[in-house]
Amino acid sequence: MLLAASRKFALFAIGSMFLGACGGGAAPGASPSAAQAAPSAASKPAAPSSSSAKPSVVGSASAALAASASASVAAKSSGSAAAGLVTVKVGLSSASPSNAGAYVGDGLGLFEQQGIRVEHVIFNSASAVAPAMINNQIDVADVGINPAMFNTVIPAHAKVVADKGSTPPGFGFTSIVVRKDLADKIKGPADFKGIQFGMTPPGLGTSNGYALGVWLATAGATVNDFHIQPIPFPEQVAALSNKALDAAMMAEPFATQAVNNGIGVRLISSDKMVPYQQVAAITYTSGFIQKPDLATKYMVAYLQGIRAYLDAFKKGLNKDKIVGILAKETGIQDTKLWGEMIPAGLDPDGKLNVKNIQEEEDYFKKLGLIKDTTPAADTFIDESFAQQAARTLGPYG
């Protein structure tokens, strides 16, 4: 049913970046008209600056691969580690608010309480995460549930260990936004026939692609009914404004910016498209798994960060401080916007929706984006670290 569209996006999926909940970089495959129409209306959040050390940035794919070959991808710190703290290198594929567990845990000093100094390594290019994981040049990485994850975690002998982005009710961090002048015409998946629809590359080869496919099926529609334009999130607002797009699947804060600026109308959010979808996850590299005590301590602080984040956005506790940490790390400086946009979903115990990860794996197999021989999801998932950390912290709530 989706094969024709999947072929169009297969090249984008191969070697793609580990897109997080709001990831999205350059759009090499964007159509000329869309690219010309959407130059700069929305600015991309700046890369974060870690509260414990300035992050290293891994650049182009070729540079990353060369660095991998020479064993020099490892990040360089801007300062020396405090006495007695063990450095844990954490690879982040974007400055996403769904990194809240890492950002808040770091900003509140929770990792230091566990004897850990976190060093964030920001990957700004395609394929950069894979060699770093395979060569154990990072300890922890965030990954989107997408073909790149399935194609890398297994050969790297890494494990998916905890939630880093999901869609419980009220936490649909991605939305389908329809151009305002078409809001009375495009009211559901049955109205998508022939439209120009924006998705961040690699389009169908993302967790958003999976959610779109599931939602379309509720009305008997498919991605072959309309035209998908590969346009990164920061450029989608301008593309809607200039009528290069009729609708787009947009992460925060871009979805809320489009609505606030009168450019678009939110049709549906991802928590209503696929409730409790597993959008992104935390992985431990094979080397870090061999340090179970350190790996568990990292997870304790990470879950504490998530719980402080949830306290802020669900209960209003210490919210100004938490928003301040997130604003610094993500580059989303407008504190009012933090109160308006839909927050990223994170589980207080780091629990993964393993059933949904398997469903997403099956979806990508049908599209031909991962091999049919890819093992079942439960073979590369290890929730023991999150379970032990949750027991240490006790019930949330």
Offer a concise description of the structure.
The chain is α/β, with parallel strands linked by helices and 397 residues long. It is 38% helix and 16% strand. It is globular.
Please describe what this structure looks like:
The chain is α/β, with parallel strands linked by helices and 397 residues long. The chain has two domains: 3-15 and 170-273, Periplasmic binding protein-like II (D-Maltodextrin-Binding Protein, domain 2, 3-Layer(aba) Sandwich); 56-169 and 278-393, Periplasmic binding protein-like II (D-Maltodextrin-Binding Protein, domain 2, 3-Layer(aba) Sandwich). Helices cover 38% and strands 16% of the residues. It is built from 17 helices and eleven strands. The strands form two sheets. Strands 1-3-2-4-11-5 form a six-stranded mixed beta sheet. Helix 8 (207-217) links the parallel strand 7 (196-199) and strand 8. Helix 13 (292-315) packs across helix 17. It is globular, with a radius of gyration of 20 Å. It starts with a helix and ends with a helix.
- What is the N-to-C succession of helices and strands? HHEHEHHEHEHEEEHEHEHEHEHHHHHH
Gyration radius, in Å: 20 Å
The helix count comes to 17
Sheet-strand content, in percent, reads 15-25%
Q: What is the CATH top level name of the largest domain?
A: Alpha Beta
Count of β-strands: 11
Strand order of the largest sheet: 1-3-2-4-11-5
| CATH topology term of the largest domain | D-Maltodextrin-Binding Protein, domain 2
Spans where pLDDT lies below 50 across 5 or more residues: 1-54, 57-80
N-to-C CA distance: 44 Å
The biggest beta sheet is recorded as: 6 strands, mixed
